[in-house]
Amino acid sequence: MPHFAYRGRNARGELVSGVLEDDDSGAVADQLVNTGISPIDIAPTGAPSTARSESSFGRLFAQSVSLDDKLLFSRQIYTLLKSGVPIMRALAGLQESAKSVAMAKVIQDLRTSLDSGRDLNSSMRRHPKVFSQFFVSMVRVGEMSGSLEEIFLRLFNHLEFEKEMKERMQQALRYPMFVMVAMGVALVIINLFVIPSFAKLFASFKAQLPPVTLLLIHFSNFMVHYWPLLLGLGIACIMGFRVYIATPAGRYSWDKLKLRLPLAGSIIEKATLARFARSFAISLKSGVSMVQTLAVMAQVADNAYIAQRIDQMREGVERGESVLRTARATGVFTPIVLQMIAVGEEAGELDDLMQEVADMYQRDIEYELKGLSANIEPIMIVFLGVLVLVLALGVFLPIWDLGRVALGPKAG
């Protein structure tokens, strides 16, 4: 966003100046008026020196703000605001006690922005990698309604839910991923070092080798001679995939495919919808309009396919359709969820019912995660058994045949 230098007078008539970041001079003027400053002059300017320094090469190696940092920040600022501590003093205390250097820098920038006349949500908008649009929108509602401490409590509960879901997914996938990586490393070692040694041994006897052994030797020779090409091809495929999913069309296709993956697809879909339902409930409870809530949910959803469906809901609501009808048209909600939406919309308690939907999805996710490892283990065991069988037949059959030939004349 462009930066604007401003001069104005505060409520006491004192001359103040600073630099604000927004879409245009009109938006900057609105910011100033909302904070009690009467603008005198607003002119485009370059980014402040601190902002320019942040874009230097050193930023590549800067520590990032973790989910735990944001979780702690939300909880602590809720406690301080509830106790009646002014926002500036609360931020100063949080900056001094912050264990993360990155989070301390963000809080320092928030204090500087507030000092220059911005409100808190505008200050947070300067850090999109730290505070999501949903987070910023909730803070804006809290500032407008005077219930900022309650908003931070709801954001804390929301981030805690996000962390729990992330940890459960990682825990369920940790063992299968470890086994797959170990098997991949074992295959590389066997093909590059073990089979070539046996191939030299078999070649010295000049015996007829079984087809399985010949296949293993040919594949091993291919890897030994062309491993740089295979490595480069693998890196190129990974980089090409990352570039592809960085495009809107690529991300949409990949996110849609993820929902159809065996075993994990259902869990990914339910986790995405659980986050949507919980965020939806928080927004409605905070007084955000239905259209604005759906617009924000579509922008912050971590799945492009689901985000498009949410955006379709927003367009339908804007046309005057009911939430139930637009939700049914998306095709991503189960009949039970649609029934709960219908009851909530009819009773005027859609926020509470969406919270129930989120809890229901969470229970389903927990149940499916418990069975994920149990479902993956038989597949890995079968694959490992086939791998061991092929290697055993390829390596030990020739040894068995050679031993039988060697012992044949003596037996005779």
What does this structure look like?
This protein is mostly helical and 412 residues long. 76% of the residues lie in helices and 5% in strands. It contains 16 helices and three strands. The chain has a three-stranded antiparallel β-sheet with strand order 2-1-3, covered by helices on one side. A hairpin with a 5-residue loop joins strand 1 (3-9) and strand 2. The longest helix is centred in the C-terminal third of the chain and has 62 residues, at 350-411. The chain is elongated. Residues 49-61 have low confidence and may be disordered.
Number of helices: 16
What's the order of the H and E elements? EEHEHHHHHHHHHHHHHHH
The proportion of residues in beta strands is 5-15%
The mean pLDDT is 81
Protein topology:
Elements: E1 3-9, E2 15-21, H1 25-34, E3 38-45, H2 49-54, H3 67-82, H4 87-97, H5 101-115, H6 120-125, H7 133-145, H8 148-205, H9 211-246, H10 248-258, H11 264-285, H12 290-300, H13 304-318, H14 323-330, H15 335-347, H16 350-411
Antiparallel strand pairs: 1-2, 1-3
What tags apply to this protein structure?
mainly alpha; single chain; 412 residues; 5% strand; three-stranded antiparallel sheet; elongated
Quick structural gist:
With 412 residues, the protein is mainly α. It is 76% helix and 5% strand.
